[in-house]
Amino acid sequence: MALIPKHPRDPSVSLIAYALAVGVPFAAYLATASPHAYWLDSGELAAAAVALDIAHPPGHPLAALVGHLFTFLPLGPLALRIALAQALCGAVAAGFLFRAIDTTVRAMEVRHDRLSIPIALGATWSVACSYAWWFQSVRPEVYALQALLLAIAIERIVALEASWPTHDVRPLSVAALALGLALANHHFMAVMTLPAIAPTLARVYRARGPRSLVVAAGALAAGLAAYVYLPVRSSTDPPVDLGHPTDLSRFFWVVSARAYQHTNVLEDAGPIDRAIDVMIAIVETVHPLLLVLALAGLWALLRAPGARRLGWVWAAIVLFACLGRTWLGHTAGNPDALGYLLPAFMGIAALAAAFVGALMAQLGGGSARAPRTMLTVLALVTAALGLAQLDQSRAHASLATFHATDDFDDRRIRALPPRAVVIAHLPQTVFRHWELAQTEHARPDVTLVPIPFLGYPGVVDHLVERDPSLRELLSGYLVDGELRQPNLQSLAASRPLLIEMDVRVPRALYETIVPGPGFYEVVDGGATDADVRGGAARRAASLESLARALGPRQDDPETRNQLLWAHYVDALYYAQVGVLERARESVSRALAIQPEALELRALSQRLAEADGETPIDVSDFTVGP
After folding, report:
1. Are 321 and 192 in contact (CB under 8 A)?
2. Residue 434 three-state SS
């Protein structure tokens, strides 16, 4: 027997409710989006959307195509238009989540719209207006789009389970299409959703035979066809072509994300520590009361005959999203890590709403007649509590006044000397160059050497083809695994050569480089003390100018990380070459950002004990990037 009796609902009421579920978060996202791409992968994904590039594995073809459509909007800078694509995806995802939660609440025998709709709206807003969801919807990224696709798939599965037994299994095909598209956007998150729908597939197979599953498989394949974009676009020589997936081997290398399969940000942490980190992230995102209600809702669903099918769907979504992030390792403070947990937040909100619905049914809300005033008020309070999440998350999630990346770009990209070669060590620095090259057509005379991606198939060949003068430099790097001094000096003799200071820069090269406003400069004849001190003064002035330009946005976590790393590597360089007063200044600035950093504190102590300007071996104070 179906969990929800078939009786007509007022279409206007359903439309208004859906509009509220979508419109409230969408208005919030629009008001807090930034005209500048954020840090992390936003620069790369903005560039991919504009130029239809091949982004880092697994290529993210769907995100590039969706973002590219929004570049045609006659509204603001290109980065803003691409962010608006994610804003719309995040808001519409909230709409499908609302429908799924409303179905779940009605499956708990809450029959009247005055109760089910406010409960579902409150649960939806509590998630869609949380920092985790909101921040994915105001910057170029893939997570809001992924939330939309998974929300569609989940809503269709919930609708099918709520109406079971039924002859109409078309929702399964729609869910399969959405899941196929999700696999073409972020396949790891999509795979983690499969256990939630496995029982539904088995149920359809037993009742309807293999034909329905074959149709669903065809819909899944149609969604996966988005991956055809990768070899087709790669064959046209796009500006950025990571992995160059023009043959089957390279295509599999990109799609399988093999470059990251041996990378783990918390490889020293055990599974229990990782699980604790994930739980902390969840508690910091949703109110602990919501978690308690979710556990109670799961209990209520599992106790109700038939409704336990929905209980499994939501519980499996929460469980496997958390297990997936635990397996990868959770990076505290990284909003991308929260993006992986969006399905878990969906499930928590739905389970909490299920408990509220079960409670309402016990209090007399199970009748189709108009509910008592007290129950209506309680349902409206639920909606209001969800809406209150707006005020709690706005300050943290808003990028309305964010311009830090633009301030860095002024010094690192726009002010570069003509025909410069820039050797970049940090992925975010690379992404900023790629984004400005596409959104502003900035500095086409500059050649970027992206150190983090030189091991990707086709990248070195692509660089040498565009700039043959890099051949010796790149060949030496691939052979030795580090930059060679003779190659650097030879290239610096013919054109400006700049290098991003990093712990991976061999200390033997310090005698060849001097600080500069944005990057360090390679001196073809070797750096003198006067070169170093003059460069240090210019760099200090540039950093002071940057701090004034940033203003209060220095409190943004990723901006602070950028400043912290810049001061830290400056301190290492100055200490190693014996300019200790500058080293002390850089350490002091870094400690002001991260006072608990052990390496910085140890280096500060060593500098305090040092006499004169004797160089200090910084090996003991060096960490990984």
Report:
1. yes
2. helix
